[in-house]
Amino acid sequence: MYKGMKLKIIELEKDKIRVTLEGEGHTIVNALVDEILADPEVDVAKYVIKYQFSDPEVFITMKPGSTKEPLTVMREAAQHMIDRCDALLSCLKN
């Protein structure tokens, strides 16, 4: 059973955040970054995996004048992913 994800905040400011996602790979992080970029207040969202077995580092910056904080955008993006997965699971059960 999946126990959850460990997130380590490296840098957090009003308009940017840099975090690592322990033990995760391209699949989940790429989907998360795509979902984050769907928010019109996001300026940049990207990730890097420096070495083959290192944890991915996600970087988000907000557009000037944005009313949202990057951590909020990250939470909302994760919730959208959960909602989509729940909808898919619901379809598969019927």
Could you describe the 3D structure shown?
By secondary structure, the chain is of the alpha+beta class. The protein has one domain (6-93): Gyrase A, domain 2 (2-Layer Sandwich), CATH 3.30.1360.10. It is built from two helices and four strands; from the N terminus they run ββαββα. It has a four-stranded antiparallel sheet with strand order 1-2-4-3, with helices on one face. Strand 3 and strand 4 form a beta hairpin. Helix 1 (26-37) packs across helix 2 (70-93). The longest helix is centred in the C-terminal third of the chain and has 24 residues, at 70-93. The chain is globular and about 45 Å long. The model has no long low-confidence stretch (mean pLDDT 92).
CATH superfamily label: RNA polymerase, RBP11-like subunit
CATH architecture: 2-Layer Sandwich
Question: Helical percent range?
Answer: 25-40%
Q: Which descriptor suits the 3D outline? A: globular
Report low-confidence residues grouped into runs of 5 or more.
Answer: none
Radius of gyration: 14 Å
Tell me the number of strands: 4
- What structural class do you assign from the helix and strand content? alpha+beta
Tell me the β content: 25-35%
**CATH level 1 class label:** Alpha Beta
Number of domains: 1
Biggest sheet, spatial arrangement of strands: 1-2-4-3
Order of helices and strands: EEHEEH
CATH topology: Gyrase A, domain 2
Straight-line distance between termini: 23 Å
Report mean pLDDT, rounded to a whole number.
92
Number of helices: 2
Which sheet architecture does the biggest sheet show? Answer: 4 strands, antiparallel
